[in-house]
Amino acid sequence: METPIFTCSLCEKKKTYKSHGGLQRHETLKHYNYNIPPSHILSVPEHELSHLKKVMVREVGKRLKNHHSAVGKQVFSIHCSEHAFVGIFGQYIERYSPCGNFYRCRFKGIESCNILTEIFKNKQWGERNYGQGQISWVQLILNSTNTIEDNQNCINQNYIEQENYIEQDNYIEPENQNRKELIQTNRKKKKLKKNK
Asked: What pLDDT shows up at residue 179?
């Protein structure tokens, strides 16, 4: 019985591996920044891409709940062809893996909101207005080497912003600073009780 051989299509010397996992490890280590889509990708009509962008915006909106338990990372998936995905996010693909057949796009930081606004052609893609001054929105932040406590403070701040902000014209300001301090104090007390 012959063992299958897996060949790296990205290397000039066409390195071979005994397993799919070995080839995947090689790609991850040596070709981590390879981002050129395969040549078989076809262009997709603009009206189809526009429809998919609207579906994505709608899916993001569904994840923007008006409750503190919905704060944090949100994940969704939609069915679309590889051709359509590359048509929408092609210039923002940071990694393509021929072995794993996956693409990676990451949007982090303030400038990413503007990039996604441009991609979706929708300024309100990342917010949902519940009326009476209650708005939930997407917040794209950079990964950092903060401690767990700093991350918890970020989560607490995000919760407070989502629950206590009202919109006045284009300026958003806290509704009640004392309530914010009270919530943070209560959380610190609960944290101390858990540690005892």
From this structure: 56
